[in-house]
Design a protein that fits this description.
A two-stranded antiparallel ribbon has the order 1-2. It is flat, with a radius of gyration of 21 Å. It has helices at residues 10-20, 69-76, and strands at residues 24-26, 32-34. It contains two helices and two strands. The protein is of the alpha+beta class. The longest helix is centred in the first third of the chain and has 11 residues, at 10-20. It has a domain at 1-41. One of its GO terms (molecular function) is mRNA binding. Keywords: Nonsense-mediated mRNA decay, Nucleus. It is found in: Nucleus. Belongs to the RENT3 family.
């Protein structure tokens, strides 16, 4: 997974990096994941879907899988 965080001060960024870089997270199954904090040389934060300036064009294939011949054939073989 990847997350983009936008800090308003260098002090907050330094504190976050010192606390979480190398921190080990354990999920419900006992798997260990080590966090890596990296600084981005390009300081723009990617827009989220809700904050995008232009509304995203809806995919014309959205909600059509139940009419797709290949998908229906696949379901018949299950």
């Amino acid at each position: 997974s990847r997350a983009y965080l936008n800090f308003t001060s260098l002090d907050a960024l330094a504190h976050f990096a010192s606390e979480f870089n190398g921190h080990s997270f354990i999920d419900s199954k006992g798997n260990h994941f080590r966090a890596i904090v990296e600084f981005s040389p390009f300081q723009r934060v990617p827009p989220s879907a809700s904050s995008a300036k232009k509304p995203r064009r809806q995919d014309p294939r959205q909600n059509t899988i139940d009419r797709d011949a290949d998908y229906l054939a696949f379901l018949e073989h299950l």
